[in-house]
Structures are given as structure tokens and as C-alpha cells.
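Hi X.,

You mentioned you wanted examples for the new student's onboarding notes, showing what a folding record looks like when two proteins sit in one file. Here is a clean example. The first protein comes first, with its sequence line followed by its C-alpha cells.
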Amino acid sequence: MRLISFTHSDGPARAGVMVGGIVRDTGLSMRALLERGLDEVPTAGELSMSELTLLPPVPDPSKILCIGRNYREHAEEQSVEAPKQPLVFAKMPSSLIAHGTPIVLSPLTAEPDWEAELAAVIGTRCSHVAEADALGVIAGYTCLNDVSARDLQRGDGQWTRAKGLDTFCPMGPELVTPDEVGDPQDLEVRCLVNGETMQRARTDRMIHGVATLVAHLSAAFTLEPGDVIATGTPAGVGAFRDPPRFLRDGDVVRVGIERVGELENPVTAPRASG
């Protein structure tokens, strides 16, 4: 099953099921739908995509938990040791944008970078989940771009501002249930900028797999339906290219994940400050 979040005729955000070119409106927000469960999804009518404004699959997660340096090759391109335990940070929910929405380049950074990632969305409120049970609490998977301000990351010494700027978390377009995705450790992840492949790797190259991440995070935080786990990016980001390359006005970034979908966002000039 493929789910989206949308607004229609200025109404509240709600979730729908994609069936061909038709959206079956559930009448519920995505978080409410996940809390209710996906075994029997209600239908409150049908709409065409042309009638809708697309939102991130979960527009209002309580948490966006992210993992740094989770592909060995990404650690190697930075000339740092791969983490023995998952390296956890967070992005602000206010940074979320949908497929097709512009990434707006902040005047606070001259070094905005791309990071293609598989994201897992929690479907069941849980805490201290055993690794053997961890995939069972996942409602689905989606594409995420962990846009990062590298100069802020270096200058601040921690990553909150660098990762949490407005529009720096494109996600979507769909939430795809595990039965359609299969093994999350057997997916190709890629990133293209203006049609040029920048990142390409398989999720079996993760240092800490999805089940390990859910178990690790749930030992520290109670995970709620709709919470997002961004599982890390492979090698090929702009900061460690020779010469470095960063996002600029007019670029188009596409994150593609096998069996999950393609997330595309244009890049636009920074907003004026003040």
C-alpha cells in the first residue's frame, strides 16, 4: 500500500491511499491513521491527484531522528572512524517539505549539501523494542533528503542548526508499507543533482541496519506513530568531492530508492533576511 498526505480545498491535512491515479481519502490525518492501524483503512471518498496539494507523508511527526555516518564509505570519505554505536541527531519538524516543494537556500549558509536517505516511519507506540521485533513496529518507508549546511556544522560544533534549517528536510512523496518494500537492507539508494548521479549505494552497506536503529533509538526515546527515522546517507555528498560542490539556485535534486519511490525538489535562492 502506498499512502500520501494532502490537503484539498483548503481543508485539514489528511491521508489517502494511492490506487492508480486515484487517491482514496481516509478522512484521517496520517498520524491518526497510523494510530488506528493499517489493517482496515477507511475510505471517505475518492479524489484525483490534480485536485490535491501534496504534503510530506507525515506532515507533523513528533520526532525526526537521524543517524550520522551510517555507511562505511561515507565515514571513509570524511577520513573519520565509522561509529561503533549509531550516531544520533535530530532534525526539526519545521524543516519538512513535500515532493516538488523548493529547498530555499538560507542566507546563513554558503555550503548547503544533499544527503539521500531511506526513512522508516514508526507505526506503533513503543519503547525498548528488541532488535528481533523492531521491523514489526515500522508502518512504512519513504525517501528523505537530509539537506545539511556544512559550514554551520563545522562552526557550531554540533548539528542542530546545520540540519534543521527551514526547508532542509524534503520527504516523500509516498509512505510505502513494508509488504511492498521487502527487506529494507536490500534497496538501492541514489541521489541525482541536475540529472548527474552523485550518490549510489545499497542499504546492505549500512553499518547499523534498520532493525538495529529502531532497537537503539527505542531504548532512549518512546517512539510514537508517525515518528521518522532517517537511516543515514552513503558516500558522494558534495562537501567531500574534489573540488567540493554545493547546492545552488536552479539546481534540481532527486532522491530515488528502489521499491520506495523518487523525491524531487528544485532549489531556489535564499530568502532575504530581516
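Then the second protein repeats the pattern, sequence line and then C-alpha cells:
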Amino acid sequence: MHPILARGSRLALYLGAWTLVGMLLAALLAGPGGLTAARSLAISIPLALVYAFFCLSAWYVARSTPLGPTGGVRLIATALTASVISSAAWLVVARGWLELFAEGSRLSPPELFPALRALIFGFGLLLYLLSISVSYLVAAFERSREAERRGLEAQVLAREAELRSLRTQIDPHFLFNTLHSISALTTVDPTAARRMCLLLGDFLRDSLALGSKDRITIVRELQLATQFLEIERVRFGDRLRTDIGVSPTGVWMVPPLLLQPLVENAVTHGVAHVVEGGVIRIAITENGSSLTIDVENPCDPDRPKRTGTGLGLSNVRARLQAIYGDRAGVSAGEADGAWSVRLTLPAEPVLSGPSNSHE
């Protein structure tokens, strides 16, 4: 269906514009035809409204001969042919209408029509060519919007593929470190190794269930981080302590498994290298429209310096960039024997109705 005919509001606006065209035609007809203003309007406005439907065919002509693939000669020939045919058909309608109009008046059709014939035909020719030009502009606009839509879809698909790739990096990295710890415990403390396996099973079950979701609540994300720290506490005992503080008043949504790489780094590259161990602090604060998440761990200032930021921090930074763009940020640094990471991301409330979140 023609896009103008698809909606009544569009059709009303279209016919309104052609009413103005009819007024212009009335002004042109008044001179050669020797007609009064009232008679000119009575003739031209109905003719213009009839020709408005004739010119709807220009949209189909433009679609059948697109600007790109169609050669210039064929394009011009098609446009001129369609214009001549439409103008000629309009001329026939105009003659019939003039016969009805002139009936009972002093002007007979043979006297009235020859004076207006050339004007009506030429005016119709120009109007149809203008309609074709507008149709080509609309088609170009639609192609531009379609290309933009495809580009946005490609960006969304690329972002989803990137997020899936980043998520799949988390599990092997975490499993390698945890299984290595279990292996070390099996010879010195089999009971602790067994408990660690059970905790690992619970954590993997929950992380697999929640990791496939787009968002989970910040409370559930903290529970996952706590589960991970409980696994590591089996190995480190009293050397690993935690301090978790949450101040947000609302229920906010965050990407799943956002904290896990950070607390893993805090244990592996922090507490593990400090003889007396230390406290891993997690603080979540709400700042208007954003959330701030701080993860801090002790570190040995004399430890061998690592090159780069590590897989975990790079993973978190890449995920936040893919999801939020410039609206999120990651900063990290060492000061006073402690390593801290700060995440800043938009505060997203729980959506009402069915969602992909987990309370």
C-alpha cells in the first residue's frame, strides 16, 4: 500500500496540500479562460484533488526505477512518459468536468476548453514531475534510515557478541585458579578441599544461572561475590577478611559477574602476597543517577610488579564500555599499601513487568 494511503492523517495532509495547488491553478485559469475567481476555484480545486490521486502513482514509478541501478536515459524517459500519460489522462478528466460545469452557462465547452487545454496539460506535466522528484527524495530518505537501522543492528549484534566473549573469559580464568587451589589442598587438608569443592559447585550453579542474564540486582551480585570469597576463605582462613558496605536506598541493576573478577584479583594478587593477610573491602554508594563500586585490598609494596592491568580488570573495563559507553568508568591505583578499583556506572532501577533480571 502507498505510504500516504496507509494512514488517514497522511491522506488528509496530502489532500490539504493539493487544495493549495488547486488555488494556484485557479489563479492561472482565471486569465486565459476569462473566468471569475469563484468559477476558477470551482473548476480547479476538484481537478487538483483528482490529480492528487493520479500523482500517487509517481511513488511506484520511482520504486520501479531506482536512482542507483537505473541508467540516466531510462530514468528520464520513464519519468517523462509517466508524466505525459498522467497529464493526458487528467486532461480528459478536465474536459469532462468542464462540460458538466459549463452546462447551463453562457460558456459552452468548445469555447472554454481550448483556452485552458495547454495550461492544464503543462501544469499537470510539471506537477507529476515534481511528484516523481519528491518520491525519489522520500525513497532516498527511506534507504538512509534503513541503512542506519541496519548499522545500529550490526552494532548491537557486535556488542552482544563482544559481551558473550567477555563473559566466557571469566569462567575459565576463575576455574583455573580455584582448581589449582583445590589441588594444593588435597594433600594438606582433604576436608577443606572437599568443602571447597562443594562451595565451588554452589557458586558455579548460581553464576551460570545468573551469568546469562542482562542484569541482576546489586544485592544478588554482592551475594555472588560473597560466595566466591567463602570459597577462598577455605584456603586462606583468618588471613582473608571482608568488609562490605552498601548504602544505596533503591534496588539497582548491574551486569552479572561484574564484581567477581575484581574480588578474585583482590585475593590472588593482594591477600595471597601478604603474610598476615588483610581485609577486602567492598563499598557501594549511590550518587544521584550513578552507582560507585569500590573494591580495595592490601598489597605488598615489595611484590614483583605486574605488567598491564590483568585479565580481570581489563574484562570489567571492556564490558562496561560495551554496555554503557562513556557513561561508565573504571579507575585503579595503589596508595598506602592498598590497591583499589573504582567502578562508576549508571544507576538502573528494576524494570516493572517481565524482565530478564533476577531479584
